[in-house]
Write a structure and sequence with these properties.
Blueprint: H1 12-18, H2 59-72, E1 76-80, H3 83-91, E2 99-103, H4 108-117, E3 124-128, H5 133-139, E4 144-150, H6 162-171, E5 175-179, H7 184-187, E6 197-201, E7 215-219, H8 222-235, H9 241-251, H10 254-273, E8 278-282, H11 292-298, E9 305-310, H12 313-321, E10 328-329, E11 339-341, E12 362-366, H13 372-385
Parallel strand pairs: 2-3, 2-4, 4-5, 5-6, 10-11
Antiparallel strand pairs: 1-7, 6-7, 8-9, 9-12, 11-12
Length: 386
């Protein structure tokens, strides 16, 4: 937190704008400059002003890292070239023989990394339904070093009890990692519920405008920070300063955007739940959803992501996602514009043949902040077109 801010607890919206963001001391610029430099002058050998080389550290990156640490309620933030770079750099703190318990409904890229890349380096994993504590307990071995959770999950929107998972991790001497991409720190702060590490694809809600790729990690564990910071520098998967600037700019409006995303998604989920062509809606803001009671306790709002299954199977699903006009058929999520996708053929195609089943009739929506009435009409037009 910048030293010129009031010495008291500040609201999320205030910290989004000001944490890590001191006006430029040289010019007085309210928005700090972007430090487009690869190296830094040294007054003597080893005598620096805190920076030596921009792979190791850059002032623009540092400002973003301080900001996300404040928003997540942690003490250390680290930025990476992508969400997968953050995940990879964290998992590289593991050693051959180490084991991870992985949620059975995770982003396809996370599964692919563990299954097709890190398995070859002796790191193993077991899938578990993390809505069931007994299943998590049963998956833990003496070699388990991490429990890896997403909540809400991608793409089935399961809500996981972070406190219960943290208690299990504590009992077994392992660490709980929570991918908080879908919720963002405005809706949910996993560290407050006992998680040890939080990761984000900042490409999504934190950036918020579909114009940057970046990853973030937050922890209050000094040992974890030291290990991951070492890897951040040695592996080198760091973001450029312009990318850091874009994410920081996006974060300033995060609270406002998340409220609109959630409000629009709530209206769309209720519309879909009542539609005769829809078999099921996955959205923790619906009272009929299994995760609704937990979401009410753990999250500020249910968020802007939802999935649904359409009657008519894969053929109907593929036809539907090709018929919308405001909902753009595209991968990714969390931007101001609404997106639609077919997870089985797009973001989760790498799960084909794995134990994780993504139904061919499943459609995922990233609900933007357009007029809700316009979005509802776009969906209605698509239903009428198939």
């Amino acid at each position: 937190m910048p030293t010129n801010l009031p010495d008291r607890d500040l609201g999320f919206e205030t910290r989004s704008i000001h944490a890590g963001q001191l006006p430029d001391p040289t010019t007085g610029a309210v928005i700090p400059p972007v430090y487009l430099t690869s190296t830094y002058a040294q007054e003597q050998v080893g005598l620096t002003k805190g920076f030596e080389y921009s792979r190791t550290g850059n002032p623009t990156r540092t400002m973003l890292e301080e900001n996300i640490a404040s928003l997540e309620g942690g003490t250390h933030g680290l930025a990476f070239a992508s969400g997968m770079a953050a995940i990879t750099t964290l998992l590289l703190t593991l050693k051959p023989g180490d084991h991870v318990v992985l949620g059975d409904d995770v982003y396809g890229g996370t599964y692919r990394l563990l299954d097709r890349t890190l398995r070859g380096y002796g790191i193993t994993f077991t899938l578990a339904d993390m809505t069931q504590p007994d299943a998590v307990e049963a998956a833990i071995t003496q070699a388990t070093k991490m429990l890896w959770a997403e909540t809400p999950t991608n793409p089935l929107m399961k809500v996981l009890d972070i406190r219960a998972l943290a208690d299990i991790a504590e009992a077994h001497g392992t660490r709980l990692v929570v991918d908080n991409t879908f919720a963002s720190p405005y809706l949910q702060r996993p560290l407050e519920h006992g998680a040890h590490i939080v990761v984000h694809s900042a490409t999504k809600y934190l950036g918020g405008h579909s114009d940057v790729v970046l990853g973030l990690l937050v922890t209050s564990d000094d040992d974890v920070h030291q290990q991951v910071a070492f890897n951040q520098n040695s592996v080198g998967a760091v973001p450029g300063p312009l990318d850091c600037f874009l994410v920081q700019r996006g974060i300033k409006t995060l609270a406002v955007r998340m409220r609109e995303h959630s409000a629009n998604a709530q209206k769309i989920a209720e519309y879909l739940e009542a539609h005769p062509a829809v078999a099921r809606v996955y959205f923790p803001g619906l009272a009929s959803d299994p995760g609704y009671p937990l979401a009410q306790r753990q999250m500020r709002l249910p968020g802007g992501m939802l999935s649904f299954t359409i009657r008519g199977g894969e053929e109907a699903a593929r036809a539907f996602v090709s018929c919308t006009r405001l909902f753009t058929l595209a991968e990714s999520l969390g931007g101001v514009e609404s997106l639609i996708e077919h997870p089985g053929a797009m973001t989760h195609a790498s799960l084909a043949g794995s134990p994780i089943e993504i139904g061919p009739d499943l459609i995922r929506l990233s609900v933007g902040i357009e007029s809700a009435d316009d979005l509802l009409q776009d969906l209605e037009d698509a239903f009428n077109a198939i």
